[in-house]
Each structure stands twice: as structure tokens, then as C-alpha cells.
Amino acid sequence: MPPLIADQLSGLKVFGAPLTVELSNDLVKLLSDQLYQSPLKAVEELVINAFDADAQICRVFVPAPSDTKNDFIVVFDNGEGMDYSGLVDLWHIGGSKKRIDEIKKKLKRKQIGKFGIGKLAASTIAHKLTYISKHDKKILTVSIDFRDFSDTPAAKNPPAASTIQIKRIEAIVHEIDDWPKFSSQPRLAKIITACKIKPAEIPLAENKSWTLAILEDLTDKAHKIRTETLRWILSTAMPLRVDFYLSLNGDQIVSSKEKLDKWVEFRVSELPAERLKALEKSTGEKWRVEGEYLISDSFPSGIKGTVFVTKQPLPGGKSDDIIRSHGFFIRVRERLINETDPLFGLKPLFFGTFVRFHADIDADDLDEDLKASREAIEETDLKTKFRAVLRDLFNHADNLYGIKRREEDEKNKKPKEGERDQVSPRLVEYPVADFLVENVNAAIGAEADESWFYLSIDPKKNYDDLISVLYTSQRKKYKYQYVNNGRAERLVKFDPESATFWINQDHEFANEYIPDVMSRSLLEDFVTAEALLEVYLRENQVPISIVGQILEQRDELLRSLARDRSYSFETIATRLRDATSDKHELEISLVVAARALGFTATHMGGSGEPDGLAVISDFQSGAKKITLEAKSSGGTPSLAAIDFAGLQEHVDNVKADGCILIAPSYPGETKTEFAAARRANKLQISCWTIEQLAQFVMSAEKRHLNAQHILDIVLTTFNPDDVAQRIDELLGAPKWDQRSLYLAILSALRQLNGRLLDRPRTLDLIAGEISRNGEFLSIDEKSIERAVIALAGASQGGMTFRKNSVILHVSLSELERRLMPLTKKSSEPRRLSSFRKDE
Asked: What confidence tens digit (pLDDT) does each residue in 5-57 have?
């Protein structure tokens, strides 16, 4: 077997002083074990070096795992080669300023490598790295063996950070003065053949340059590289139609974005007549089409090119590190002149179209207006007219894209109810798929820990099948599931794979609106829009940190709005429980609870005044007034803190009929002989725990509890033990609640549907069906009658109760819909949804 190229250099002529390379074994291990764990990344870094050298051609050879004949990896480029000082700078870890400055003088390509350590990634796949580079007339070569930086075998433990040893080695630079002879020796000839380098690409002409990076003595990682995977990795790093030809083992690597669906595509010469008339008006000169060119007096050589708009957005992914894929690409005599300005000085255009828009335009007549090679052109009349052409090209593309989008929406609208999409896939499925295509593998998120704010996505998972489904298949209807994730967690998690929105019912905003079935539907619409907002923001290239800030601020606002106005009994009960140790919040929560139960309540809390006052005008024996008192505490308040005498003074001062006191618990509350119980009885202060009042509020709607029930206890029952017993009796009897009874009546009507068609639906028939349910074994007919009357009154004309019979004027489904505010149970919508899955 021929010796390695790295071992053949010693026979060449030495050029200049040896290079000094300083590295530590720890840095080499860090690159191998952490920064560049994947051998694919090492190859990608070498390709990036070629791009940074302003190469137009880059050829890569990597042997397949089954290839036993080729024991080398090669990266060739025809970019800016390296002279002696360039080789010195190459091995200066931390930056390559000289080489970057040289390249900037020419094509001004944006540099990707920033720290000069990309070349060290080669240590993960090879022990030896040899550079052969031509610059001007000379071909120089140098080789590095990464094992020269290894610690001595005697070093069993790694050194402490303060004692890390930097190793300095000298690398000899050699000159190849007879390239035809050197390149014809067997191993190098084999390398050039395997890499498919053409003879014309390694010329000896003075003004041509190139570089050959040869990796030998390969590591185990190198033998595990799958060329199919490497091909995909490199394709995702390639932008659209950039002046950079890349091949792997002889096959061209094209951008993965070339596979995107093109919804609009046309040539500059295909601008319609009305657009040409508009151009004539805006530029003051006539325009005509000749062959592929658009010509005017100012552009006698003509403007030509192609324009397309893709279904999916073009920005995103690793390819953006090389060059953008969207916007205008203006070439003058085959030179790209606006690499960093996708708008070419135009005002911002419609972003939804612009991120899908790509225009390759040739305009050689601009050459005279260039300041310098590949730099921005002067502000001239010619440039103004050219911009008018660009704007009309974009407007035409935008118009065609809008037509295509509407056609796609109509195509997705099936004629059958429940299948006709009112929610367009471009609002849900397509944006999710768009972003998954380019970003899911990057694991980039909207928060500091790089997780998504609302979306539930595993960055390590292959989502190819899901992306295909989102783009092409019939919609999987979406589900809304309610979970308890804790009050500090996000409002919603959206899992596009299972088509599920997981709503956190512990979130303050959700907790406010879930109990009301009508509000719940609006909540589900809102969380859908909120979850998709994150997708829209990121799809439209809003910086990730800004996305996180926006959504975090919105979440804080939603929580604040929910706290500001309380409607649901569940939320009011939760606030009571949460305010146990917050004096002012507990007072307000007590007043709000009193209002929810039917009192006219006012928060007071001044010196010598009760915390609140609750009045009801239509109590059985006339108007009644009670004081509201709250004692916050981290535990059980002391007798002194409660101050029963002071509470009685408040009652006397406002001439109230009684007092309700709430506290976390009471001293000796389970034994009436203790002081708290005695004082409560003596001064007639009704002692409730915060939890008891919260349970009372929570049960109010289901059991039809109100201010009268509160007064019945407050005016007659005082010590904590007796109050607890009265509340338990009230909440425990009957075993069924009104809401359950309403639902049982509707269920009975459904069970009777289609049976005994010659008989009216009498109260007896309905009661018979209800009594079959074990929950209602003890129910009496009078209770059922009252519930039927209530349902008829709330049915908005859908049902009447007359002469002991129930008469339906609408279908049972419609009746259930009209009674949703009373039953709190969702029913089938009047229009079948193509978006939501019926549970």
C-alpha cells in the first residue's frame, strides 16, 4: 500500500521556517467529545471553510462504511488559496483575520467560521490532516498529526484547569515545485480520482488558486459516516442557487429547498401587458419584450431572469448561515451585487409572500453604476427605474400567489358538511409543517432553555412522516383535552402529531372560563390562535428571544385580566383558598364570594369598620344585613388576633343582623368548651373556615345555593363545630344536585324517544326513567316537576310543560343546545366542524 500523503512530504523542499502550532490535548478532546461529537459535523466544517475561502467549487469524498479500498477523506475547493503567511494564519486558533481580509477585498462573501477552530473538528475523524494549497505561483503543503498534542501515557488523571499544558509543535512547510510529478504518484492520483477533481480545476496558471484538505489515518468515527446521511446534512446547509457548486463522491449536492413546491413561476419576459403599461407610467419610458429580455432605452442590454414563489417559506435552517434563499438576487455580468440586501433597497414588501419569493435577475446595464466590484450601486435614476421593475415583478408574483392560495383553499373545501374546511390548512397545518421542515432538527426554542413556549415538539424525533401528512393529507381533526399542569405552567401545549391542544385548567385564565360551557368554546378558539401565534412569529423570522418576550408578556397579561374580573364560581373559590395569608386579598375575595351568592356586598376595611358589608332585601322576614370579616394567617389565628369583641362592635356600629367570620382554622374548633367556641356563641359570630366557604361557593350553581342559605346559618349557628355540621348537612342532602337532575331529565327524554309514540311525555313517564338511576332513588316527583318547569322556562321556546305533560317544539339536540347555560354541558354545534373532533 502506498505511504500516506502526510508521510511523503519529507522528501519535498522545505519552504520558510517551520509553523508553530500551539494546542492542548484538552481542547482537542473537547472538540472530539463535545463540540463535534458527530463525524458529520467535522465534514460540514471543512465545507464551510471552503465557502469561507470564496470557492465556487467544492468537492468532497467520504468512503462508505463498506468501502475497504479508500482510507482517506478529501475536501477540495477552488477558493482563495494559502501562501506561507496564509498557512501560518490558518493554524492561529481564535481567528483568521488576514485571510478574511483578503477575501473581503474580492467578493465580500459573508464569513461563517468565526473562531478558527473548524479545522480542528477534523481531529474527530482523522489523526492526520494535510493541506496542499496553491496561491499565485507556489504550491505549498503542511501536515499535522493531532496525536502530537496528546498527554504522556503516564498521565492517568486529567490536569486541573489551572495546570492545563499547552503543547507547541513545529510543522514543516514544504513546496511542491513539480506538481505534475507529485500528483501522479499512486496515492495522490487515487485521491484526486476518488474526489472526481477535474484537471482543469487544479491548474498551474498564475492567477488560479485552490486547496486540497486530505484526512488520513482515520478514526473509528470516520468509518461510521453514512454517505446518505451526510448528503442530507449537506443539502440542508445549501441555499438556493448560490454560486457554490458542492459534490459528494462525484454527485452534486443541491439545496433541500429545491424540493419545495413552487406555486408560482415565471420569467421576467412573461410580465403581462398591463404590468408593462404600469412600468411605462412609473418610469417614463416604453418597455418591450425581446426573447428572454425586458428592454427599454435605459436598459438596452435588457433585464432577464426567473421568479418563483414557493408553498413553504424559504428562510430558516443552516443554509441561512451561507446565504439567504429568498428575495432578489441581482447579477451584473454574472456577479452577485446584493448578497446582504434581499430587498435591493425597496421598502418592505408583503412579508407572507416575500419569505417565499425568489428572483434571479440579470441586469448588465447596471454595471456602469457600480461603485466597485460586487458593491452597492449608486443612487441614480437608472437604479430607481430598475427598482420599479423589481417591484412590478414582486407585485405580479404576489398576485399569482394570492390566486393560487385561494384556489388551494377552495380545493380543500369539500362539498359535504363536516368536511368543508372553513379553517384553511395554510393557517394551521402548513405553517407548522413549514417550520418543522427547517427548524425542528435544530431544537431551537423561544425560551432560554430552548424549549417551545406552546408547541410540544421533540427535537430528536424524525418528523418526516408528520410533515408529509400536514402538507398533503386530509386533516386530522383537532381535540381539546383538559389537564392539571399547575398554575405556574403554560396555558396550552399544542401537539401537532396527535392533533391535540392540551389546555391547562389550573392556569388562571383557563380556570376563569372553563366552567361556563359557552365561554369554554371561546377559550378553545383562543388557545388555538395563541398556540399558532408562536408558529406565525417564528415562521416570519421574529428573533427567538423576542418571541419568548412577547408570549411571556401576553401570558402575564392574560393572568392579570383573569384576576381583575371574576365571574366563575370555581375561580372565586380558588381565590379564597389562595388568599389565606394575604389580608387584603382575602377581604376582597370574601366580598366577591358574597356577591356571587346573591348579596349586595361592599368592601370597607377602614379603622373601626368591618372588612365588608353584605345586604339582601328580600329575605323571608325582610331586609337583612351582615358584616363580613376575614382573618388571614399562615396557620390558626390566636384569640387575640380574632378579637371577637371588636367584631361584635362592628356589628353594632353598622346595625347589622349578624356576622360571618372566615379564617384558615380556629383555636379548639372541634371542642365547644374552648374559648373560641364559647365566644362565638356568646357574641353570635358565625365562624366559617375559608375552605368551607370555598366549598359552599363551588357548590352554589349545582345545588342552587344562595344568600338565603348563608343567612340561615349565619343568623343561627356560630361556633366552628356547629357551623361545620350545618354546612355538611346542606351540601350532603339531597345526594343529587340540580344540574345532575336537569341532565337526567334530558336523558330520560332521549330514552323515551321512539317509544310509546301514542302517549304524551308525562311527568310520570319521565320520573319513572329517572328513578332507575341509583343517584335519584330517593327523589320525589315534586322535585322533578320543579326541575322540568325550570328547563321549560330556560328553553327559549323549545319546550313547554302543560297539564303534566312535556311538549317539545324542537329536536332534542337543539333543546340541549338551548339549555347549555343551565346544564353546563356541551352539545353538538349547529354546524358540523371540519376542524374539531367531536368528543
From this structure: 999 999 899 999 998 887 666 655 655 555 556 788 888 888 888 888 888 89
Q: What is the pTM of this model?
A: 0.56
Give me 371's grid cell. Answer: 461603485
Higher pLDDT, 643 or 735: 643
Indicate the burial class of 806 (C-beta count within 10 angstroms; 0-12, 13-18, 19 or more): buried
**pLDDT tens column, 606-651:** 888 999 999 998 766 678 999 999 999 878 888 889 999 999 999 9
- Residue 231's Cα: distance from chain center in Å? 28
The grid cell for 489 is 405552567
Put the strands of the sheet holding 805-808 in their side by side order: 761-762, 805-808, 799-802
Q: Residue 836's pLDDT is what?
A: 83
What is the rounded distance in angstroms from the CA atom of residue 91 to the CA atom of residue 120?
9
Q: Is the pLDDT of residue 688 over 80?
A: yes
Q: What is the spatial distance between Cα 251 and Cα 69, in angstroms, rounded to a whole number?
A: 19
- Residue 572: CB atoms within 10 A of its CB come to 23
Q: Please count the other Cβ atoms lying within 10 Å of the Cβ belonging to residue 277.
A: 12
Q: What is the CATH number of domain 260-406?
A: 3.30.230
Round to whole Å and give the CA distance between 434 and 314.
Answer: 9
pLDDT at residue 118, as a whole number? 58
Residues whose CB is less than 8 angstroms from the CB of residue 213 and which lie 6 or more positions away in sequence, other chains included: 46, 49, 74, 75, 76, 122, 129, 130, 131
Is domain 569-730 given the CATH code 3.20.20.370 in the classification? no
pLDDT tens string 357-377: 999 999 999 987 665 434 444
Q: Is the pLDDT of residue 794 over 90?
A: yes
Pairwise CA distance, residues 89 & 108, whole Å: 19
Helix, strand, coil % (nearest 5) of the chain? 45, 20, 40
Rg of the chain on CA atoms, in Å: 39
Q: Cell numbers 356586598 label which residue?
A: 601
Distance, in Å, from the CA atom of 590 to the CA atom of 612, rounded to the nearest integer, reads: 8
Classified by CATH at the fold level, domain 5-255 comes out as: Heat Shock Protein 90 (3.30.565)
Among 75, 74, 77, 73, CA closest to 57: 77
- Give the whole-angstrom CA distance, residue 548 versus residue 444: 12
Q: What is the pLDDT of residues 415-442, one digit of tens each?
A: 666 566 778 888 898 888 877 765 544 4
Check residues 684 and 449 and name the one with the higher pLDDT. 684
Q: Is the pLDDT of residue 839 over 90?
A: no
Give ∠ CA 273-276-282 in degrees, rounded to 5. 150
% of the chain at pLDDT higher than 90: 47
Contact at 8 Å (CB) between 291 and 203? Answer: no
**Domain 569-730 shares a fold with domain 738-823:** no
Please give the CATH number for the structural domain made up of 738-823.
1.10.10
- Per DSSP, helices labelled H in 2-55 are 5-8, 25-30, 39-52
CB 600, CB 583: distance < 8 Å? no
Instruction: Assess contact for 333 and 367: CB atoms under 8 A.
Output: yes
pLDDT of residue 40: 84
Backbone angles phi, psi at 784, to 5 degrees: -65, -40
Contact 503, 524 (CB under 8 A): yes
If residue 537 lies in a helix (H) or strand (E), which one and from where to where? helix 517-539
Domain-by-domain residue ranges, the chain? Answer: 5-255, 260-406, 425-564, 569-730, 738-823
* CA–CA separation, 543 and 535 (whole Å): 12
Enumerate residues 6+ apart whose C-beta is below 8 A from 89: 82, 96, 97, 98, 99
Mean pLDDT of the chain: 84
